[in-house]
Model the fold of this input.
Amino acid sequence: MKNAYDKDFRIGILGGGQLGRMILQESPNLNLSVYTMDSSLSSPCGLISENFVVGDIRNYDDVIAFGKNKDVLTIEIENVNIKALEALEKDGVKVFPQPRVVRILQDKGVQKEFYKKNGIPTSDFKLIESAATLKDNLDEIPYVLKMRTGGYDGKGVQIIKLKEDLNDVFEGKCLVEDLVDLDKELSVIVARNESGECRTFPLVEQSFNPIANLVEFLFSPADVSQEIEKEASRIAIDVIEKLDMVGLLAVEFFLDKQGNLLVNEVAPRPHNSGHQTIEGNYTSQFGQLLRSILNLPLGDTKLRGASVMVNVLGEPGFSGNPVYEGLGDLLSMSGVYPHLYGKDTTKPYRKMGHVTVIDNDLEQAKIKANKVKDRLKVISATPTS
Done:
């Protein structure tokens, strides 16, 4: 029986974005052979991968051709061809997360129904065939409106507070959620291997850019009680076990002002809320993913110290070839670790990289992180008119 250290053992990643890139960067530490597929050689993975295949992860034939000679296949984005993954799994390729799990989580409506059926705390919701029907129920405002499929990085989410907000809503099937009386947004990364071993990373706190609805800062550890920390870990393990999933799962929570934890959404892959683990924890989320899908012992997730992650977003008013203004200032700062994703084009609020700041004291890390945000700007040579 082949093992992960055999020369001909092949691991495949569907998707060539920054998440795949950071998995690739982790893989040499275990001397693993990793292959990636994406539609462009200029993708973040294409720029550094020796084993890169050009193909469409949503195309059945492309996924089959890529996956058929792999021993283990994983994903870095959910928008993949599920039928192809199911066929590969039937033919003996190990696919983690399992296709049936991806099928549940691709659709936010099915995802919410899974929580309800399995006793996982979440906000009240209803499923609708078309957002146009909401104009007949104005008394239900306010609420959160989400596209059931295809949303990412803050896209596909609208907060409806006034009837005028319904003048420009999504087409197609949507999810309507109660608007939570929010205290904090939190996240736990949990991993599970084939042997059933589970391990969670410490709870982190997220701060969002109000315009782009993207995470701007991430704080580790989260400023919550031990009881909240333990409960979030328990719920995250409950979710991955009830999914019977192998791999890495990001569980995002709302903490309401009454102290209740509600699962917002989950993602069956590495996640933006775990990037700080590269420098901030003994094991990174990317190393833990590889351990989990190869059924290796899971790594120690404890904190090395306090950390803050800053998302590096494209500046408003700029599109084109990126220019990283102020990068030199960061490189002279102690405890500051930039990660640029190699994207060849910037545009407003596009994720272009992240910076992790580590310190023995979280408040000091926050001060440094604000300096990072103020100094590092992703612009282009020619501003957009």
Remarks:
- The chain has a mean pLDDT of 92.
